[in-house]
Design goal:
By secondary structure, the protein is α/β, with parallel strands linked by helices. The chain has a single domain, classed as Alkaline Phosphatase, subunit A (3-Layer(aba) Sandwich). The chain has helices at 2-7, 21-25, 102-108, 122-127, 148-156, 171-180, 209-219, 248-253, 258-268, 273-277, 293-301, 334-349, 352-355, 434-443, 460-465, 500-514, 518-524, 526-533, 537-550, and strands spanning 10-16, 38-40, 58-60, 76-78, 80-82, 140-142, 158-160, 228-231, 290-291, 308-311, 358-364, 402-405, 413-415. A nine-stranded mixed β-sheet has the order 2-13-7-12-11-1-10-8-9. Strands 3-4 form a two-stranded antiparallel ribbon. Strands 5-6 form a two-stranded parallel ribbon. Helix 16 (500-514) crosses helix 17 (518-524).
């Protein structure tokens, strides 16, 4: 741990959204070759240099693939490179929001009895959810030329090709593991579908990394405090209350009438996602803070960056404009996401003093239904005694990219923990989100492993056992940094985020305004026609205002 303690003063953690390793970095290259320049630890018995794509991957077109003895009537749908200028080269790929809930991920990870280590359900599951674009969109994977910013950072610094999300499901449980070390037994964003369908239920007063830092500072006044700050662009869910706004019907009656929507709106208004969802620690900002992305830039420029910076990207539904959503979440614009990581990287490196002592962690919360060829290992440690009748928390989620960016990282590094697919000892663990928590605590000398002795530092059983990545930080500074430039991908079908939440809310909104049933609206294809007509969020809101006025329901 000495190299990290000696050379790193600032850790900046940026967690993006909903992309698997293969979908973004399966074709990563180092000087044109699938051969990393360095491995941490050194390669072990039967271990591959790089667990990327080979070009032979495919998915079945129907369920006959899963039959033990046939008859097999499926076709092989090939995993396809998204190369510049091709018909796949859209900024919003896939064009529909894939399934990310626990039930969908279970379907995506379905394997045949004769090939139990190969997940083959991604295409078939996408068939059940896509409503814009082509069903074949889910087969597309990016190459370095179409994802140059993330690829340049991954090849120039360190990336793990053996890092898994913590739960085989969607955002909230995985972000809970990334900050708290547990999801309290929850396996979907909104297990309480009646009350918290739209916004998700807060995790309340459980320990998280911010509260751990506060507790450590309070009980160790003789050591330099661990300072921290959340940086974000917008308040989460802070949309205008307007009867003609496409989201209004969602807020008012997403699941069971007005009460649920009002609860979500009132609970989240004026708050960022992280303090709403994980509030403990934000009640005491003596050592912490909340700021904008501009504040982050100013803190870097003024040498006032805290020990730990946690950055939120711009989430849906803070805005409907694809160009303003920076989280990589499909079907939002990867051009905007690439621009965001370029902006964060350039901000840090613009101040040589800060850059010389910074570790930037870029990771993703979950795979979001996008393709990955590896089966997640099933040796995870349950975080606590919270149970779920549908899941025992012993399987990790799908593999995701995680990058470590610092002048103290050996260029061209692939880093892994104990686990890799061919390892003989199947008890060895991979990296997951709790590895960030464990590494941060080790870095600051916080005893996070003893629940009995230090209950306010404890972040669950999985964090206590999690492998750490401090060994990637060296004592040799590597000068130089890549110049990042986004790829000019083609604009998609519309400039409006085509998320399933929006499509459902629009259907409900049209039904409420026109007096039709939702089934009638869906059968008429009204929402599809609206998306063909409205290319921007302003046009979308204007459409709903005109529709409301036509039916005598214009806003007061």
């Amino acid at each position: 741990m000495s190299n990290m303690q000696a050379n790193i003063k600032y850790v900046v953690h940026l967690m993006l959204e909903n992309r698997s390793f293969d979908s973004l970095l399966g074709w990563l290259r180092w000087d044109g070759q699938a051969r990393p320049k360095n491995h941490v630890p050194p390669l072990r018995s039967n271990e591959k240099e790089f667990y990327g794509l080979q070009g032979t991957e495919w998915l079945p077109s129907n369920y006959s693939y899963f039959l033990s003895n046939g008859p097999f009537t499926y076709k092989r749908e090939p995993i396809t490179k998204i190369i510049p200028g091709s018909s796949w080269d859209y900024c919003e790929m896939p064009a529909s929001d894939p399934g990310e809930e626990f039930e969908h991920v279970t379907a995506q990870l379905k394997a045949a009895s004769y090939a139990p280590s190969t997940p083959m359900g991604y295409y078939l599951d996408y068939l059940t959810v896509y409503d814009v674009g082509s069903a074949r969109d889910i087969l597309g994977v990016f190459v370095p030329e179409t994802l140059p910013c993330l690829s340049a950072l991954a090849s120039r610094f360190a990336v793990s090709d053996m890092w898994f999300s913590s739960v085989p499901t969607q955002t909230n449980p995985n972000r809970a593991f990334s900050l708290c070390g547990t999801s309290l037994g929850r396996i979907n964003n909104n297990d309480d579908l009646k009350t918290y369908r739209f916004c998700g239920e807060s995790y309340g007063n459980i320990n998280n990394i911010f509260s751990v830092f506060n507790s450590f500072n309070a009980t160790n006044p003789g050591v330099p405090p661990v300072t921290w700050k959340l940086y974000a662009r917008w308040n989460w869910h802070d949309v205008a209350r307007d009867p003609a706004h496409p989201f209004e019907s969602g807020w008012n009656s997403w699941q069971v009438g007005g009460e649920a929507g009002a609860l979500c709106f009132n609970a989240t208004k004026g708050k960022y996602y992280t303090p709403y969802m994980f509030p403990k620690g934000f009640d005491n900002l003596k050592w912490g803070g909340i700021g904008s992305i501009d504040d982050f830039k100013n803190d870097v420029a003024q040498n006032t960056l805290p020990s730990f910076s946690y950055i939120e990207p711009a989430f849906f539904p803070q805005t409907l404009d694809l160009s303003d959503l920076t989280d990589y979440h499909p079907p939002e614009s990867l051009y905007a996401g690439e621009g965001f990581i370029k902006d964060i990287f350039n901000t840090i490196t613009s101040n040589p003093k800060v850059w010389a002592n910074t570790l930037l962690i870029i990771t993703f919360d979950e795979h979001g239904g996008t393709y990955d060829h590896l089966m997640p290992p099933a040796n995870a440690i349950p975080p606590d005694t919270n149970t779920n009748p549908n899941f025992n928390f012993k399987r990790y989620g799908v593999r995701i990219p995680t990058l470590l960016i610092s002048p103290w990282v050996t260029p061209g590094t692939i880093f892994r923990a104990g686990y890799y697919p061919e390892v003989a000892d199947k008890t060895l663990l991979p990296f997951d989100h709790t590895s960030v928590l464990a590494t941060l605590c080790k870095w600051k000398g916080i005893n996070y492993k003893s629940q009995g002795q230090f209950p306010n530092y404890y972040l669950g059983n999985r964090t206590a056992a999690a492998p750490t990545f401090d060994g990637v930080i060296t004592n040799t500074s590597n000068p130089g940094k890549p110049n990042l430039a986004q790829h000019s991908c083609s604009a998609g079908l519309t400039g409006v985020a085509k998320r399933r939440e929006l499509l459902r809310s629009m259907t409900r909104g049209v039904a409420e305004i026109t007096g039709q049933s939702e089934a009638e609206v869906a059968a008429q294809g009204t929402v599809e026609e609206i998306l063909k007509t409205c290319k921007t969020a302003a046009e979308l809101e204007s459409y709903f205002k005109d529709l409301a006025a036509k039916h005598g329901k214009s806003p007061a």
